[in-house]
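Why should sequence recovery work at all? Because a backbone constrains its sequence more than one might expect. Tight turns favour small or flexible residues, buried strands favour hydrophobic ones, and helices have their own preferences. The token representation captures these environments compactly. In the example below, the structure is given first.
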């Protein structure tokens, strides 16, 4: 079986775009009103250490995907729990973004 691996630079781009996109789409703009851009900027500043840690882990395990790395770092049981939680988070966030797009299309 062939495994596809990303470089650490691609992981940084992927995580940055994912966090920025989800905070821009689902962000609390209704509560913040004109200060929503400050919340997005602060979320980017707070996420930079996490991005650097993920990039470093990807350079330490060059030919493994994310789930193989989680299993190697945390073991089989805890790695399975973390993987399921991560998959659930991605699906949940995707559903929320899709819901926002559909609501926007119905309104427009």
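From this structural description, the recovered sequence reads:
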């Amino acid at each position: 079986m062939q495994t596809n691996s990303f470089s650490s630079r691609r992981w940084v781009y992927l995580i940055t775009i994912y966090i920025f996109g989800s905070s821009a789409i689902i962000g609390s703009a209704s509560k913040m009103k004109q200060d929503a851009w400050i919340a997005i900027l602060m979320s980017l500043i707070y996420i930079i250490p996490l991005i650097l840690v993920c990039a470093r882990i990807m350079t330490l395990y060059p030919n493994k995907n994310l789930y193989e790395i989680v299993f190697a770092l945390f073991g089989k049981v805890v790695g399975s729990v973390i993987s399921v939680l991560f998959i659930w988070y991605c699906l949940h966030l995707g559903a929320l973004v899709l819901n926002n797009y559909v609501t926007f299309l119905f309104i427009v």
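A few observations help interpret the result. The two ends are 46 Å apart (CA to CA).
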